[in-house]
Amino acid sequence: MRDQLLDAVERLLVRGGVDAVRLDAVAVEAGVSKGGLLHHFPSKRALVQGVVERLADRFEAVLPGPDAPPGAFALAWLDASIPTESPTGDGSGADQVPVALLAAAGGPEVLDVLRGRYDAWQRRLVDNGLDPAVATLVRFAVDGWWTSRLLGLAVPHDDLHRRLRELLVDLTRPGGGPVPGAADAPEHG
PANTHER family from the entry (predicted)? Predict the structure, then answer.
């Protein structure tokens, strides 16, 4: 039932942000009694924190372990966040679950969960065999990119999407740098 409740919270967060997460609305969305909900999650904050922890667990599950080759962690960070091709069509589906993550970041206790995870991920990035500044640059670029996608802020598409992703992939290679010929590419895509 716990996953059923967290699924319901994710749907409400995607549709209406953190304000849409009310205990009665979650119970209705999940098709359970309010008592059943309270048995697993005694408060709205516990629900939102549960969603954030589950999302972080899912993200963590696709990241390589500590013995991964140099750059593998930064590449996995990119692969888990930015698709190889620019998305098309409706952006309100399940791939918008990061909306929940962003919305949930509003409360200090929930934000502490994220801070703890990011601290651990950042340590793994800088210890993964790349120049720590390059690994962090990739993380910042990816985080900014998915935030741009999340909020619909001048999101790069098509060729620009592919070229940006290629630049980041190249940075994840040991000794990586700009893609040859990238400086010759058109400025607008």
Answer: HTH-TYPE TRANSCRIPTIONAL REGULATOR BETI (PTHR30055:SF234), HTH-TYPE TRANSCRIPTIONAL REGULATOR RUTR (PTHR30055)
Quote the domain boundaries for residue 9. 1-54
Report yes or no on 188 lying in a domain. no
**Is residue 146 situated within a structural domain?**
yes
Q: Can you tell me which residue has the tokens 């991920």? A: 121
* 6 plus 67 within the same structural domain: no
Number of domains in the chain: 2
Nearest in space to 63 (alpha carbons), one of 130, 2, 117: 117
CA-CA-CA-CA dihedral for 47, 48, 50, 52, to nearest 10: 170
CA distances from 47 to 6, 23, 63, 142, 175 (A): 7, 9, 25, 27, 43
Quote the CA–CA distance of 104 and 87 in Å, as a whole number: 24
Write out pLDDT tens, residues 104-128. Answer: 555 777 778 888 899 999 999 999 9
Q: What token pair was written down for 158?
A: 């098509």
Q: What is the pLDDT of residues 41-67, one digit of tens each?
A: 998 888 888 888 888 898 899 999 888
Q: What is the pTM of this model?
A: 0.77
Neighbour tally for 57: CB within 10 Å: 10
Residue 18 lies in a domain: yes
